[in-house]
Design brief:
The structure is a single chain. With 360 residues, this protein is α/β, with parallel strands linked by helices. The strands form 4 sheets. It has a 6-stranded mixed β-sheet. It has a 6-stranded mixed β-sheet with strand order 16-15-14-17-18-19, with helices on both faces. It has a 5-stranded mixed β-sheet with strand order 7-8-9-10-11. Helix 10 runs parallel beside helix 11. The longest helix has 19 residues. The chain is globular. It binds S-adenosyl-L-homocysteine. The site of S-adenosyl-L-homocysteine has 17 residues, from helix 7 and helix 10.
């Protein structure tokens, strides 16, 4: 077994009493404002974290530029970070295999939730899509460890990297282009709850699809009836799941490329749609809902899945107004007994028109 280095051999970062309290409460981040000293600590290092008196808290990844200065990775000393990354990737893959059902596309690595801060890996059947979001994960030996472990465990035909330029800027990392890291294939189709989707690894938003909605798609299908409206439909995830159970279905998004893929997805599922056409409308959802709610457009089921309106605290008031407006208009557009499936800060609720749950 590899011998652990003496704790002193890792660079040390001291955190303030407030930062220490957060760590004791189980939080895994320390913000820059709670760093007491990180003198001479190189960007992206694996560091030893202590309170202001020197009491140790364990090992973390250090970012020299993000507001999130410390991301904890272990309560112990970490001797070999790339080896730890490989082990945790293996653990995450094994864990997901016990959980995931009815899909060949799913998130394999969930960053902090798999104790791998800054690493996201999505599987789209035989293609893997990787996002690297912290200085420490971007180090070359760590990148190599990630690719080696994913290849050994999953034998993908190819691995692509999707770069989030905004995050690279926040992390003061040099710009990088999205592209294939391994293999040549960058498109396929995947199946989720028996619905087929086209996947272009280097196109689309996020890593290509909103895989975290899989259970919500299946749940939405259970409520589907009559006329349905999928607002912020992207490539049609909800609309395609609702369509077999509805008499009429409309998807709305402001992104034309997303709607073009949505239409291709509808064609892929022609058989289960049984000749039913889905109407795709390119529009600003706020304008469209305003129009529709003041005219007499009514629906039996409305899905609202807006993007995050608040990227930071500053945007919170405007975001709340936006969410409120969308939800009120959608509720107004429901037929009696109709259902809205709505997202608020990543959490879903269904609201029956007759007993409206307070949303705000
Ligand atoms: N429901 C989708 C994911 C939605 S992501 C799914 O399950 O796959 C949010 C979507 O909102 C994106 O497709 C984006 O293009 C769209 N969008 C953002 N602002 C919009 C606006 N003002 N009007 C309409 N669509 C918008």
């Amino acid at each position: 077994m590899a011998k652990s280095p003496a704790p002193q051999s890792l660079p040390a970062v001291k955190v303030s009493p407030r930062g220490a309290t957060r760590l004791k409460e189980g939080h895994v981040w320390v913000y820059r404002s709670d760093i007491v000293s990180a003198d001479g600590v190189p960007a992206g290092s694996v560091v030893r974290v202590t309170d202001h008196r020197g009491k140790p808290f364990g090992t973390a990844l250090y970012s020299s530029s993000s507001q999130i200065a410390i991301r904890m990775i272990s309560a112990d000393t970490v001797a070999d970070f790339p080896a730890l990354v490989r082990q945790r990737i293996g653990d995450a893959i094994a864990y997901r295999e016990t959980l995931v059902r009815d899909t060949d596309a799913y998130r394999i690595i969930f960053s902090e939730a798999d104790f791998l801060p800054g690493l996201i890996v999505d599987r789209y059947r035989d293609i893997l899509s990787v996002q690297i979001l912290t200085q420490a994960m971007d180090a070359e030996p760590v990148r190599q460890a990630i690719l080696a472990e994913l290849t050994t465990r999953l034998q993908p035909v190819s691995i692509v990297e999707r770069v989030d330029s905004r995050v690279r800027e926040l992390e003061a990392l040099p710009p990088r282009a999205s592209g294939l890291l391994q293999g040549e294939k960058s498109a396929n189709t995947f199946t989720m709850n028996k619905v087929q989707f086209r996947y272009e690894a280097l196109e689309g938003q996020k890593t290509g699809a909103f895989l975290d909605q899989r259970e919500n798609y299946a749940a939405a299908a259970q409520y589907a009836k009559g006329e349905a409206l999928d607002v912020f439909c992207y490539e049609g995830g909800f609309a395609l799941h609702l369509a077999p159970h509805c008499s009429q279905i409309t998807g709305v998004d402001s992104s034309r490329p997303a709607l073009e893929v949505a239409d291709q997805n509808a064609a892929l599922n022609r058989q289960s749609l049984n000749g039913k056409e889905i109407e795709w409308i390119e529009a600003n959802a706020f304008d469209l809902l305003k129009d529709y709610s003041s005219s007499d457009r009514r629906y039996d089921i409305i899905v609202l899945d807006p993007p995050a309106f608040a990227k930071s605290k500053r945007d919170l008031d405007a975001a709340m107004r936006g969410y409120k407006e969308l939800n009120l208009r959608a509720l107004k557009m429901l037929r009696p007994g109709g259902i809205t499936l709505t997202e608020r800060f990543g959490c879903w609720r269904s609201a029956d028109k007759r007993k409206i749950t307070p949303f705000f």
